Protein backbone atom coordinates (compact mmCIF):
# COMPACT_ATOMS: atom_id res chain seq x y z
CA UNK A 1 0.00 0.00 0.00
CA UNK A 2 1.19 3.50 -0.74
CA UNK A 3 1.37 6.06 2.06
CA UNK A 4 -1.82 7.74 0.90
CA UNK A 5 -3.64 4.39 0.78
CA UNK A 6 -2.41 3.62 4.28
CA UNK A 7 -3.66 7.02 5.43
CA UNK A 8 -7.11 6.28 3.96
CA UNK A 9 -7.17 2.90 5.74
CA UNK A 10 -6.11 4.57 9.01
CA UNK A 11 -8.75 7.27 8.63
CA UNK A 12 -11.41 4.65 7.88
CA UNK A 13 -10.64 2.77 11.10
CA UNK A 14 -10.59 5.97 13.18
CA UNK A 15 -13.86 7.32 11.75
CA UNK A 16 -15.48 3.92 12.23
CA UNK A 17 -14.31 3.83 15.86
CA UNK A 18 -15.41 7.39 16.60
CA UNK A 19 -18.85 6.81 15.05
CA UNK A 20 -19.14 3.60 17.06
CA UNK A 21 -18.80 5.29 20.44
CA UNK A 22 -20.60 8.46 19.32
CA UNK A 23 -23.66 6.46 18.23
CA UNK A 24 -23.95 4.96 21.68
CA UNK A 25 -22.96 8.10 23.60
CA UNK A 26 -25.48 7.31 26.32
CA UNK A 27 -23.42 4.23 27.10
CA UNK A 28 -19.98 5.66 26.41
CA UNK A 29 -19.83 9.38 27.20
CA UNK A 30 -22.63 10.01 29.68
CA UNK A 31 -21.90 7.43 32.42
CA UNK A 32 -18.35 8.63 33.21
CA UNK A 33 -19.63 12.21 33.32
CA UNK A 34 -22.34 11.26 35.84
CA UNK A 35 -19.96 9.11 37.91
CA UNK A 36 -17.36 11.88 38.06
CA UNK A 37 -20.01 14.45 38.95
CA UNK A 38 -20.96 12.22 41.89
CA UNK A 39 -17.31 12.07 42.94
CA UNK A 40 -17.20 15.89 42.86
CA UNK A 41 -20.36 16.17 44.93
CA UNK A 42 -19.42 13.55 47.53
CA UNK A 43 -15.66 13.94 47.86
CA UNK A 44 -15.50 17.55 46.86
CA UNK A 45 -18.54 19.31 48.32
CA UNK A 46 -19.61 16.99 51.17
CA UNK A 47 -16.44 15.33 52.52
CA UNK A 48 -13.88 17.73 51.05
CA UNK A 49 -14.38 20.64 53.45
CA UNK A 50 -13.90 18.23 56.39
CA UNK A 51 -10.58 17.09 54.95
CA UNK A 52 -9.29 20.61 54.49
CA UNK A 53 -6.37 21.42 52.22
CA UNK A 54 -4.01 19.08 50.38
CA UNK A 55 -0.58 20.42 49.34
CA UNK A 56 -2.00 23.94 49.71
CA UNK A 57 -5.17 23.39 47.61
CA UNK A 58 -8.80 22.81 48.47
CA UNK A 59 -9.46 19.08 48.41
CA UNK A 60 -11.88 19.33 45.48
CA UNK A 61 -9.33 21.25 43.39
CA UNK A 62 -6.69 18.70 44.37
CA UNK A 63 -8.69 15.66 43.21
CA UNK A 64 -10.07 17.12 39.97
CA UNK A 65 -7.02 16.27 37.78
CA UNK A 66 -6.95 12.73 39.14
CA UNK A 67 -10.66 12.23 38.49
CA UNK A 68 -10.35 13.50 34.92
CA UNK A 69 -7.36 11.22 34.40
CA UNK A 70 -9.28 8.29 35.87
CA UNK A 71 -12.09 8.82 33.33
CA UNK A 72 -9.59 9.13 30.46
CA UNK A 73 -7.78 5.92 31.46
CA UNK A 74 -10.93 3.87 31.90
CA UNK A 75 -12.55 5.07 28.68
CA UNK A 76 -9.59 4.85 26.34
CA UNK A 77 -8.99 1.32 27.61
CA UNK A 78 -12.66 0.31 27.47
CA UNK A 79 -13.12 1.66 23.94
CA UNK A 80 -10.37 -0.42 22.39
CA UNK A 81 -10.88 -3.60 24.39
CA UNK A 82 -14.63 -3.73 23.74
CA UNK A 83 -14.38 -2.70 20.08
CA UNK A 84 -11.54 -5.10 19.29
CA UNK A 85 -13.08 -8.01 21.14
CA UNK A 86 -16.51 -7.40 19.56
CA UNK A 87 -14.83 -7.46 16.14
CA UNK A 88 -13.19 -10.74 17.06
CA UNK A 89 -16.42 -12.14 18.46
CA UNK A 90 -18.47 -11.17 15.38
CA UNK A 91 -15.55 -12.12 13.09
CA UNK A 92 -15.70 -8.73 11.37
CA UNK A 93 -12.03 -8.25 12.33
CA UNK A 94 -11.56 -10.48 9.26
CA UNK A 95 -12.61 -7.53 7.07
CA UNK A 96 -9.39 -5.84 8.12
CA UNK A 97 -7.25 -8.96 8.15
CA UNK A 98 -8.02 -9.92 4.55
CA UNK A 99 -7.30 -6.39 3.38
CA UNK A 100 -3.80 -5.13 2.59
CA UNK A 101 -3.89 -2.75 5.59
CA UNK A 102 -0.60 -3.27 7.46
CA UNK A 103 -0.83 -4.36 11.10
CA UNK A 104 0.74 -1.16 12.39
CA UNK A 105 -2.02 0.84 10.72
CA UNK A 106 -4.62 -1.39 12.34
CA UNK A 107 -2.91 -0.82 15.70
CA UNK A 108 -2.63 2.94 15.17
CA UNK A 109 -6.25 3.12 14.05
CA UNK A 110 -7.54 1.42 17.18
CA UNK A 111 -5.24 3.56 19.35
CA UNK A 112 -6.54 6.74 17.72
CA UNK A 113 -10.11 5.57 18.30
CA UNK A 114 -9.35 4.94 21.98
CA UNK A 115 -7.64 8.33 22.30
CA UNK A 116 -10.66 10.07 20.75
CA UNK A 117 -13.01 8.42 23.26
CA UNK A 118 -10.65 9.11 26.18
CA UNK A 119 -10.31 12.75 25.19
CA UNK A 120 -14.03 13.19 24.54
CA UNK A 121 -14.82 11.90 28.00
CA UNK A 122 -11.92 13.91 29.45
CA UNK A 123 -13.27 17.14 27.94
CA UNK A 124 -16.81 16.39 29.14
CA UNK A 125 -15.60 15.60 32.67
CA UNK A 126 -13.45 18.75 32.70
CA UNK A 127 -16.49 20.81 31.72
CA UNK A 128 -18.44 19.31 34.64
CA UNK A 129 -15.47 19.92 36.98
CA UNK A 130 -15.72 23.63 36.17
CA UNK A 131 -19.04 23.76 37.99
CA UNK A 132 -17.52 22.37 41.17
CA UNK A 133 -13.99 23.74 41.37
CA UNK A 134 -11.69 26.55 40.38
CA UNK A 135 -9.75 24.87 37.64
CA UNK A 136 -6.36 26.36 37.01
CA UNK A 137 -4.58 25.49 33.77
CA UNK A 138 -1.05 26.22 35.01
CA UNK A 139 0.86 24.29 32.34
CA UNK A 140 -1.44 23.71 29.37
CA UNK A 141 1.14 21.87 27.26
CA UNK A 142 1.79 19.44 30.11
CA UNK A 143 -1.95 18.84 30.48
CA UNK A 144 -2.37 18.16 26.76
CA UNK A 145 0.74 16.01 26.36
CA UNK A 146 0.14 13.91 29.48
CA UNK A 147 -3.52 13.25 28.72
CA UNK A 148 -2.64 12.29 25.14
CA UNK A 149 0.18 9.97 26.17
CA UNK A 150 -1.94 8.36 28.87
CA UNK A 151 -4.83 7.78 26.47
CA UNK A 152 -2.40 6.25 23.96
CA UNK A 153 -0.91 3.97 26.60
CA UNK A 154 -4.24 2.64 27.82
CA UNK A 155 -5.61 2.27 24.31
CA UNK A 156 -2.72 -0.05 23.49
CA UNK A 157 -3.25 -1.90 26.74
CA UNK A 158 -6.93 -2.30 25.83
CA UNK A 159 -6.01 -3.75 22.46
CA UNK A 160 -3.64 -6.27 24.05
CA UNK A 161 -6.42 -7.30 26.43
CA UNK A 162 -8.77 -7.60 23.43
CA UNK A 163 -6.29 -9.80 21.58
CA UNK A 164 -5.97 -12.22 24.49
CA UNK A 165 -9.65 -12.16 25.51
CA UNK A 166 -11.64 -15.26 24.69
CA UNK A 167 -14.92 -14.26 26.32
CA UNK A 168 -16.72 -11.12 27.46
CA UNK A 169 -15.62 -11.97 31.02
CA UNK A 170 -12.00 -11.63 29.94
CA UNK A 171 -12.50 -8.03 28.88
CA UNK A 172 -13.78 -6.99 32.29
CA UNK A 173 -11.25 -8.84 34.46
CA UNK A 174 -8.32 -6.46 33.89
CA UNK A 175 -10.36 -3.24 34.31
CA UNK A 176 -12.01 -4.57 37.45
CA UNK A 177 -9.14 -6.28 39.19
CA UNK A 178 -6.12 -4.38 37.92
CA UNK A 179 -7.00 -1.01 36.43
CA UNK A 180 -9.49 0.22 39.03
CA UNK A 181 -7.34 -0.67 42.09
CA UNK A 182 -4.24 0.83 40.47
CA UNK A 183 -6.16 4.00 39.64
CA UNK A 184 -7.56 4.39 43.17
CA UNK A 185 -4.11 3.72 44.60
CA UNK A 186 -2.46 6.00 42.04
CA UNK A 187 -2.77 9.20 44.06
CA UNK A 188 -6.10 10.37 42.66
CA UNK A 189 -7.49 11.14 46.12
CA UNK A 190 -4.32 11.69 48.15
CA UNK A 191 -0.69 12.66 48.04
CA UNK A 192 1.77 9.82 48.60
CA UNK A 193 3.50 12.12 51.11
CA UNK A 194 0.70 11.05 53.47
CA UNK A 195 1.83 7.41 53.28
CA UNK A 196 4.49 5.64 55.30
CA UNK A 197 7.85 5.11 53.65
CA UNK A 198 7.06 1.48 52.72
CA UNK A 199 3.76 2.36 51.03
CA UNK A 200 5.36 5.39 49.36
CA UNK A 201 7.99 3.13 47.79
CA UNK A 202 5.38 0.55 46.83
CA UNK A 203 3.25 3.27 45.23
CA UNK A 204 6.18 4.18 42.99
CA UNK A 205 5.67 0.84 41.23
CA UNK A 206 2.23 1.97 40.12
CA UNK A 207 2.50 3.57 36.66
CA UNK A 208 -0.79 5.42 37.10
CA UNK A 209 0.78 7.44 39.94
CA UNK A 210 3.12 9.07 37.39
CA UNK A 211 0.28 10.00 35.06
CA UNK A 212 -1.98 11.41 37.77
CA UNK A 213 0.82 13.46 39.30
CA UNK A 214 2.09 14.82 36.00
CA UNK A 215 -1.47 15.72 35.03
CA UNK A 216 -2.00 17.40 38.41
CA UNK A 217 1.20 19.34 37.84
CA UNK A 218 -0.32 20.64 34.61
CA UNK A 219 -3.36 21.97 36.45
CA UNK A 220 -1.99 22.96 39.86
CA UNK A 221 1.79 23.08 39.49
CA UNK A 222 2.34 20.47 42.25
CA UNK A 223 3.38 16.83 41.93
CA UNK A 224 4.74 14.02 44.10
CA UNK A 225 6.89 12.89 41.17
CA UNK A 226 9.41 14.84 39.05
CA UNK A 227 7.76 15.70 35.71
CA UNK A 228 10.60 14.26 33.60
CA UNK A 229 10.33 10.93 35.42
CA UNK A 230 6.64 10.80 34.55
CA UNK A 231 7.32 11.44 30.85
CA UNK A 232 10.07 8.79 30.79
CA UNK A 233 7.91 6.18 32.54
CA UNK A 234 4.85 6.81 30.36
CA UNK A 235 6.90 6.85 27.13
CA UNK A 236 8.69 3.64 28.10
CA UNK A 237 5.37 1.90 28.73
CA UNK A 238 4.00 3.15 25.41
CA UNK A 239 7.00 1.89 23.45
CA UNK A 240 6.98 -1.50 25.22
CA UNK A 241 3.22 -2.01 24.85
CA UNK A 242 3.21 -0.81 21.23
CA UNK A 243 5.89 -3.37 20.38
CA UNK A 244 3.92 -6.05 22.17
CA UNK A 245 0.64 -5.09 20.45
CA UNK A 246 2.31 -5.12 17.04
CA UNK A 247 3.98 -8.45 17.77
CA UNK A 248 0.63 -9.99 18.71
CA UNK A 249 -1.04 -8.66 15.57
CA UNK A 250 1.86 -9.84 13.39
CA UNK A 251 1.67 -13.28 14.95
CA UNK A 252 -2.09 -13.21 14.50
CA UNK A 253 -2.56 -14.23 18.11
CA UNK A 254 -6.22 -15.10 18.65
CA UNK A 255 -7.25 -13.73 15.25
CA UNK A 256 -5.54 -15.99 12.72
CA UNK A 257 -5.28 -19.79 12.77
CA UNK B 1 1.74 -14.43 -15.62
CA UNK B 2 -1.27 -16.33 -16.97
CA UNK B 3 -2.17 -18.02 -13.71
CA UNK B 4 -4.57 -16.43 -11.30
CA UNK B 5 -3.56 -18.86 -8.59
CA UNK B 6 -0.68 -21.26 -8.17
CA UNK B 7 -0.47 -23.55 -5.17
CA UNK B 8 2.51 -25.80 -4.57
CA UNK B 9 2.77 -28.46 -1.85
CA UNK B 10 0.39 -26.55 0.41
CA UNK B 11 0.21 -28.07 3.86
CA UNK B 12 -1.50 -27.07 7.06
CA UNK B 13 -1.23 -28.65 10.49
CA UNK B 14 -3.25 -26.91 13.20
CA UNK B 15 -1.85 -26.36 16.69
CA UNK B 16 -3.91 -29.30 17.99
CA UNK B 17 -2.07 -31.59 15.58
CA UNK B 18 -4.91 -31.92 13.05
CA UNK B 19 -3.53 -32.14 9.54
CA UNK B 20 -6.00 -30.24 7.35
CA UNK B 21 -3.95 -30.11 4.14
CA UNK B 22 -1.40 -32.70 3.07
CA UNK B 23 0.54 -31.03 0.28
CA UNK B 24 -1.83 -29.70 -2.36
CA UNK B 25 -0.79 -28.64 -5.87
CA UNK B 26 -3.28 -26.66 -7.87
CA UNK B 27 -3.46 -24.01 -10.58
CA UNK B 28 -6.27 -21.73 -11.68
CA UNK B 29 -6.07 -19.92 -15.00
CA UNK B 30 -6.86 -16.25 -15.31
CA UNK B 31 -10.45 -15.71 -16.32
CA UNK B 32 -11.48 -19.19 -15.20
CA UNK B 33 -14.63 -20.09 -13.31
CA UNK B 34 -13.25 -22.78 -11.05
CA UNK B 35 -15.02 -25.14 -8.66
CA UNK B 36 -13.26 -26.26 -5.50
CA UNK B 37 -15.29 -29.11 -4.13
CA UNK B 38 -15.02 -31.60 -1.33
CA UNK B 39 -16.97 -33.06 1.56
CA UNK B 40 -17.28 -31.17 4.84
CA UNK B 41 -13.93 -30.97 6.62
CA UNK B 42 -12.00 -31.86 3.45
CA UNK B 43 -9.78 -28.78 3.61
CA UNK B 44 -11.53 -26.33 1.28
CA UNK B 45 -12.04 -23.62 3.87
CA UNK B 46 -8.50 -24.08 5.18
CA UNK B 47 -7.21 -23.56 1.63
CA UNK B 48 -9.33 -20.44 1.24
CA UNK B 49 -8.24 -19.27 4.70
CA UNK B 50 -4.60 -19.51 3.64
CA UNK B 51 -5.24 -17.60 0.41
CA UNK B 52 -6.93 -14.81 2.35
CA UNK B 53 -4.37 -14.75 5.20
CA UNK B 54 -6.82 -15.86 7.89
CA UNK B 55 -4.98 -19.18 8.22
CA UNK B 56 -1.22 -19.56 8.27
CA UNK B 57 0.16 -22.28 6.05
CA UNK B 58 2.58 -24.82 7.47
CA UNK B 59 4.32 -25.68 4.20
CA UNK B 60 4.22 -24.78 0.54
CA UNK B 61 4.02 -21.83 -1.77
CA UNK B 62 1.07 -19.77 -2.89
CA UNK B 63 1.06 -17.21 -5.63
CA UNK B 64 -1.94 -14.97 -6.36
CA UNK B 65 -1.89 -13.21 -9.73
CA UNK B 66 1.87 -13.73 -9.78
CA UNK B 67 2.44 -12.35 -6.27
CA UNK B 68 4.07 -14.78 -3.86
CA UNK B 69 2.21 -14.38 -0.57
CA UNK B 70 5.44 -14.94 1.37
CA UNK B 71 7.07 -12.03 -0.44
CA UNK B 72 4.28 -9.49 -0.91
CA UNK B 73 0.98 -10.54 0.61
CA UNK B 74 -0.20 -6.93 0.47
CA UNK B 75 -0.05 -6.86 -3.34
CA UNK B 76 -1.75 -10.26 -3.51
CA UNK B 77 -4.53 -9.17 -1.14
CA UNK B 78 -5.30 -6.13 -3.28
CA UNK B 79 -6.18 -8.46 -6.16
CA UNK B 80 -8.19 -10.89 -4.10
CA UNK B 81 -11.81 -10.65 -3.01
CA UNK B 82 -13.29 -13.05 -0.48
CA UNK B 83 -16.89 -14.00 0.20
CA UNK B 84 -16.64 -16.21 3.27
CA UNK B 85 -18.97 -18.96 4.33
CA UNK B 86 -20.02 -17.31 7.60
CA UNK B 87 -21.45 -13.81 7.90
CA UNK B 88 -18.54 -11.72 9.13
CA UNK B 89 -19.60 -8.10 8.84
CA UNK B 90 -20.51 -5.76 11.64
CA UNK B 91 -24.24 -6.31 11.98
CA UNK B 92 -24.64 -3.01 13.82
CA UNK B 93 -23.58 -0.93 10.81
CA UNK B 94 -25.77 0.29 7.96
CA UNK B 95 -25.41 -1.80 4.80
CA UNK B 96 -23.77 1.00 2.81
CA UNK B 97 -21.19 1.63 5.54
CA UNK B 98 -20.13 -2.02 5.57
CA UNK B 99 -19.20 -1.74 1.89
CA UNK B 100 -17.64 1.74 2.08
CA UNK B 101 -15.51 0.83 5.11
CA UNK B 102 -14.18 -2.21 3.29
CA UNK B 103 -13.10 0.03 0.41
CA UNK B 104 -11.31 2.23 2.94
CA UNK B 105 -9.31 -0.76 4.23
CA UNK B 106 -8.03 -1.15 0.66
CA UNK B 107 -6.97 2.49 0.55
CA UNK B 108 -9.74 3.54 -1.83
CA UNK B 109 -10.77 7.18 -1.68
CA UNK B 110 -14.19 7.68 -0.08
CA UNK B 111 -15.68 9.33 -3.16
CA UNK B 112 -14.78 6.36 -5.35
CA UNK B 113 -15.85 4.00 -2.57
CA UNK B 114 -19.32 5.59 -2.45
CA UNK B 115 -19.72 5.33 -6.23
CA UNK B 116 -18.69 1.68 -6.24
CA UNK B 117 -20.82 0.85 -3.22
CA UNK B 118 -23.84 2.26 -5.05
CA UNK B 119 -22.95 0.35 -8.22
CA UNK B 120 -22.60 -3.05 -6.53
CA UNK B 121 -25.47 -2.58 -4.08
CA UNK B 122 -27.71 -1.70 -7.03
CA UNK B 123 -26.49 -4.66 -9.09
CA UNK B 124 -27.14 -7.00 -6.19
CA UNK B 125 -30.54 -5.54 -5.39
CA UNK B 126 -29.56 -4.00 -2.05
CA UNK B 127 -29.59 -0.29 -2.84
CA UNK B 128 -33.02 0.21 -1.28
CA UNK B 129 -31.68 -1.37 1.90
CA UNK B 130 -28.51 0.74 2.07
CA UNK B 131 -29.52 2.58 5.25
CA UNK B 132 -30.82 -0.52 7.02
CA UNK B 133 -28.73 -2.04 9.79
CA UNK B 134 -27.02 -5.12 8.38
CA UNK B 135 -28.56 -7.28 11.11
CA UNK B 136 -32.04 -6.60 9.71
CA UNK B 137 -31.28 -8.14 6.31
CA UNK B 138 -32.57 -11.56 5.34
CA UNK B 139 -30.12 -14.45 4.89
CA UNK B 140 -30.04 -14.04 1.12
CA UNK B 141 -29.47 -10.29 1.40
CA UNK B 142 -26.63 -10.83 3.85
CA UNK B 143 -24.95 -13.17 1.34
CA UNK B 144 -25.33 -10.54 -1.40
CA UNK B 145 -23.96 -7.88 0.92
CA UNK B 146 -20.83 -9.97 1.36
CA UNK B 147 -20.49 -10.21 -2.43
CA UNK B 148 -20.85 -6.42 -2.79
CA UNK B 149 -18.27 -5.93 -0.03
CA UNK B 150 -15.84 -8.35 -1.70
CA UNK B 151 -16.15 -6.53 -5.03
CA UNK B 152 -15.78 -2.94 -3.86
CA UNK B 153 -12.01 -2.96 -4.43
CA UNK B 154 -12.59 -4.62 -7.83
CA UNK B 155 -10.48 -7.75 -7.31
CA UNK B 156 -9.15 -9.79 -10.22
CA UNK B 157 -9.66 -13.03 -8.31
CA UNK B 158 -12.89 -13.59 -6.40
CA UNK B 159 -13.26 -16.52 -4.02
CA UNK B 160 -16.76 -17.49 -2.94
CA UNK B 161 -17.08 -20.00 -0.14
CA UNK B 162 -20.59 -21.44 -0.41
CA UNK B 163 -22.18 -18.15 -1.48
CA UNK B 164 -25.64 -19.58 -2.06
CA UNK B 165 -25.99 -21.64 1.12
CA UNK B 166 -29.48 -21.15 2.52
CA UNK B 167 -30.56 -18.90 -0.35
CA UNK B 168 -33.88 -19.48 -2.14
CA UNK B 169 -33.89 -20.64 -5.75
CA UNK B 170 -34.88 -17.31 -7.27
CA UNK B 171 -32.09 -15.40 -5.56
CA UNK B 172 -29.64 -18.22 -6.22
CA UNK B 173 -30.35 -18.00 -9.94
CA UNK B 174 -29.99 -14.21 -9.94
CA UNK B 175 -26.66 -14.63 -8.14
CA UNK B 176 -25.56 -17.15 -10.76
CA UNK B 177 -26.30 -14.74 -13.58
CA UNK B 178 -24.48 -11.96 -11.71
CA UNK B 179 -21.42 -14.19 -11.23
CA UNK B 180 -21.50 -15.28 -14.88
CA UNK B 181 -21.52 -11.64 -15.95
CA UNK B 182 -18.66 -10.86 -13.58
CA UNK B 183 -16.64 -13.76 -14.97
CA UNK B 184 -17.41 -12.72 -18.54
CA UNK B 185 -16.02 -9.28 -17.70
CA UNK B 186 -12.71 -10.88 -16.75
CA UNK B 187 -12.85 -11.68 -13.04
CA UNK B 188 -11.44 -15.08 -12.18
CA UNK B 189 -13.82 -16.88 -9.84
CA UNK B 190 -13.17 -19.77 -7.48
CA UNK B 191 -16.34 -21.26 -6.05
CA UNK B 192 -16.91 -23.79 -3.33
CA UNK B 193 -20.39 -25.15 -3.01
CA UNK B 194 -22.34 -28.18 -1.88
CA UNK B 195 -24.87 -27.58 -4.64
CA UNK B 196 -23.17 -29.57 -7.37
CA UNK B 197 -25.74 -28.45 -9.92
CA UNK B 198 -24.38 -24.96 -9.26
CA UNK B 199 -20.78 -26.02 -9.89
CA UNK B 200 -21.74 -27.93 -13.03
CA UNK B 201 -23.73 -25.03 -14.38
CA UNK B 202 -21.16 -22.31 -13.64
CA UNK B 203 -17.66 -23.76 -13.61
CA UNK B 204 -15.31 -24.74 -16.43
CA UNK B 205 -12.66 -26.41 -14.31
CA UNK B 206 -12.83 -28.31 -11.08
CA UNK B 207 -10.71 -29.59 -8.21
CA UNK B 208 -11.91 -32.01 -5.57
CA UNK B 209 -10.25 -32.17 -2.17
CA UNK B 210 -10.83 -34.93 0.31
CA UNK B 211 -9.15 -35.40 3.63
CA UNK B 212 -6.56 -32.73 2.85
CA UNK B 213 -5.55 -34.31 -0.47
CA UNK B 214 -6.35 -33.14 -3.99
CA UNK B 215 -8.03 -36.16 -5.57
CA UNK B 216 -9.18 -34.60 -8.83
CA UNK B 217 -8.17 -31.55 -10.84
CA UNK B 218 -9.49 -31.37 -14.35
CA UNK B 219 -11.93 -29.65 -16.66
CA UNK B 220 -15.65 -30.04 -15.98
CA UNK B 221 -16.11 -31.49 -19.48
CA UNK B 222 -13.46 -34.18 -18.95
CA UNK B 223 -14.79 -35.02 -15.53
CA UNK B 224 -18.35 -35.43 -16.75
CA UNK B 225 -16.97 -37.54 -19.59
CA UNK B 226 -15.84 -40.03 -16.96
CA UNK B 227 -19.41 -40.80 -16.08
CA UNK B 228 -20.06 -44.43 -17.12
CA UNK B 229 -23.80 -44.24 -16.88
CA UNK B 230 -26.59 -41.88 -16.03
CA UNK B 231 -29.87 -42.80 -14.37
CA UNK B 232 -33.14 -41.24 -15.49
CA UNK B 233 -36.59 -41.32 -14.00
CA UNK B 234 -39.33 -41.60 -16.62
CA UNK B 235 -42.82 -40.40 -15.88
CA UNK B 236 -45.07 -42.78 -17.83
CA UNK B 237 -48.28 -41.69 -19.54
CA UNK B 238 -50.03 -44.99 -18.73
CA UNK B 239 -49.43 -47.13 -15.67
CA UNK B 240 -47.70 -50.48 -16.20
CA UNK B 241 -47.95 -53.57 -13.94
CA UNK B 242 -44.68 -55.36 -14.61
CA UNK B 243 -41.11 -54.38 -15.22
CA UNK B 244 -40.53 -54.11 -18.97
CA UNK B 245 -37.40 -55.68 -20.45
CA UNK B 246 -35.63 -52.96 -22.39
CA UNK B 247 -32.82 -54.40 -24.45
CA UNK B 248 -29.50 -52.78 -23.44
CA UNK B 249 -30.89 -50.81 -20.49
CA UNK B 250 -31.11 -51.72 -16.81
CA UNK B 251 -34.55 -50.82 -15.46
CA UNK B 252 -36.33 -50.64 -12.15
CA UNK B 253 -40.02 -49.94 -11.65
CA UNK B 254 -40.51 -47.54 -8.77
CA UNK B 255 -44.29 -47.43 -9.09
CA UNK B 256 -46.79 -47.93 -11.91
CA UNK B 257 -46.05 -44.52 -13.36
CA UNK B 258 -42.33 -44.16 -12.63
CA UNK B 259 -39.65 -46.16 -14.38
CA UNK B 260 -35.96 -45.86 -13.53
CA UNK B 261 -33.62 -46.48 -16.46
CA UNK B 262 -29.83 -46.57 -16.43
CA UNK B 263 -28.30 -45.32 -19.66
CA UNK B 264 -24.75 -46.55 -20.17
CA UNK B 265 -22.09 -44.37 -21.77
CA UNK B 266 -22.31 -44.92 -25.54
CA UNK B 267 -26.05 -45.48 -25.55
CA UNK B 268 -28.19 -42.63 -26.80
CA UNK B 269 -31.54 -41.36 -25.63
CA UNK B 270 -32.86 -42.06 -29.15
CA UNK B 271 -32.06 -45.74 -28.65
CA UNK B 272 -33.89 -45.69 -25.32
CA UNK B 273 -36.99 -44.08 -26.82
CA UNK B 274 -36.91 -46.49 -29.74
CA UNK B 275 -36.99 -49.45 -27.34
CA UNK B 276 -39.71 -47.84 -25.24
CA UNK B 277 -41.75 -47.05 -28.36
CA UNK B 278 -41.44 -50.63 -29.57
CA UNK B 279 -43.04 -51.79 -26.33
CA UNK B 280 -45.78 -49.19 -26.53
CA UNK B 281 -44.63 -47.35 -23.47
CA UNK B 282 -45.38 -43.64 -23.67
CA UNK B 283 -43.33 -41.19 -21.66
CA UNK B 284 -44.69 -37.87 -20.43
CA UNK B 285 -41.43 -36.49 -19.06
CA UNK B 286 -38.03 -37.52 -17.78
CA UNK B 287 -35.51 -36.20 -15.29
CA UNK B 288 -32.04 -37.15 -14.17
CA UNK B 289 -32.16 -39.14 -10.92
CA UNK B 290 -29.13 -37.36 -9.54
CA UNK B 291 -27.09 -34.48 -10.85
CA UNK B 292 -24.31 -35.83 -13.09
CA UNK B 293 -21.58 -34.08 -11.16
CA UNK B 294 -23.08 -35.24 -7.91
CA UNK B 295 -22.93 -38.84 -9.10
CA UNK B 296 -19.28 -38.44 -10.11
CA UNK B 297 -18.42 -36.58 -6.93
CA UNK B 298 -19.79 -39.40 -4.78
CA UNK B 299 -17.94 -42.01 -6.88
CA UNK B 300 -14.61 -40.14 -6.71
CA UNK B 301 -14.78 -39.43 -2.98
CA UNK B 302 -15.84 -42.99 -2.18
CA UNK B 303 -13.08 -44.56 -4.28
CA UNK B 304 -10.58 -42.19 -2.67
CA UNK B 305 -11.71 -43.33 0.77
CA UNK B 306 -11.53 -47.01 -0.28
CA UNK B 307 -7.98 -46.55 -1.56
CA UNK B 308 -7.04 -44.83 1.66
CA UNK B 309 -8.49 -47.62 3.82
CA UNK B 310 -6.64 -50.25 1.72
CA UNK B 311 -3.37 -48.43 2.37
Outline:
Chain A is an all-alpha fold and 257 residues long. Helix content of chain A is 78%, strand content 2%.
Question: What are the SSEs and their pairings?
Answer:
The complex is a heterodimer of chains A (257) and B (311).
Chain A: H1 3-23, H2 25-28, H3 30-51, E1 53-54, E2 57-58, H4 59-90, H5 93-97, H6 103-132, H7 140-164, H8 170-184, H9 197-203, H10 207-220, H11 227-251
Antiparallel strand pairs in A: 1-2
Helix pairs in contact in A: 1-6, 3-4, 3-6, 4-6, 4-7, 4-8, 4-10, 6-7, 7-10, 7-11, 10-11
Chain B: E1 3-13, E2 19-29, E3 33-37, H1 44-51, E4 59-64, E5 67-68, H2 73-78, E6 80-83, H3 95-105, H4 110-123, H5 139-151, E7 157-161, H6 169-184, E8 188-192, H7 196-202, E9 205-210, E10 213-219, H8 220-225, E11 229-236, E12 250-255, E13 258-264, H9 269-278, E14 283-288, H10 292-310
Parallel strand pairs in B: 3-8, 3-9, 6-7, 7-8
Antiparallel strand pairs in B: 1-2, 1-4, 4-5, 9-10, 11-13, 11-14, 12-13
Helix pairs in contact in B: 3-4, 3-5, 7-10
Topology pattern of chain A, helix = H, strand = E: HHHEEHHHHHHHH
Pair with the biggest interface: A-B, 27 and 31 residues
Rg of chain B (C-alpha, Å):
23 Å
Largest sheet geometry of chain A: 2 strands, antiparallel
Number of strands of chain B: 14
For the record, the count of structural domains of chain A works out to 1
Number of separate helices of chain B: 10
Describe the structure.
- The complex is a heterodimer of chains A (257) and B (311).
- Chain A is an all-alpha fold.
- Chain A is 78% helix and 2% strand.
- Chain A has one domain (3-251).
- Chain A contains eleven helices and two strands; from the N terminus they run H-H-H-E-E-H-H-H-H-H-H-H-H.
- In chain A, strands 1-2 form a two-stranded antiparallel ribbon.
- Chain B has 311 residues and is of the alpha/beta class.
- Helices cover 35% and strands 29% of the residues of chain B.
- Chain B has helices spanning 44-51, 73-78, 95-105, 110-123, 139-151, 169-184, 196-202, 220-225, 269-278, 292-310, and strands at residues 3-13, 19-29, 33-37, 59-64, 67-68, 80-83, 157-161, 188-192, 205-210, 213-219, 229-236, 250-255, 258-264, 283-288.
- Chain B has a six-stranded mixed β-sheet with strand order 6-7-8-3-9-10, with helices on both faces. Chain B has a four-stranded antiparallel β-sheet with strand order 2-1-4-5.
- The chains are: A mainly alpha (257), B alpha/beta (311).
- The interface between A and B is medium-sized, with 27 and 31 residues.
Amino acid sequence: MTWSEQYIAFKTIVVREVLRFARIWVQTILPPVITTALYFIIFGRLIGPEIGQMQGFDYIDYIVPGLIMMAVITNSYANVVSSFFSSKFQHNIEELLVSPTPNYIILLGYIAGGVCRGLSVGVAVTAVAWFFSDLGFTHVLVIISIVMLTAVLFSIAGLINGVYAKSFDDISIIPTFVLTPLTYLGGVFYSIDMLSSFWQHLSLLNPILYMVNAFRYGFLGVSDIPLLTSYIIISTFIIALFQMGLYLLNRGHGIRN
Amino acid sequence: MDKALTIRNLGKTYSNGFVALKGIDMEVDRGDFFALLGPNGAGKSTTIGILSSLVRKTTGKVSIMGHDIDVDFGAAKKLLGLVPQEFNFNVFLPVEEVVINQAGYYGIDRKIACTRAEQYLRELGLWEKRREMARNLSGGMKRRLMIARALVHEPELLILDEPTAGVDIEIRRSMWSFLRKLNAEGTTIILTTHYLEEAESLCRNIAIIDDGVLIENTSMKKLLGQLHSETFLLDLATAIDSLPVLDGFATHLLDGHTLEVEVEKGMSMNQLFAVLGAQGIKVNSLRSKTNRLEQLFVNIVESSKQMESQE
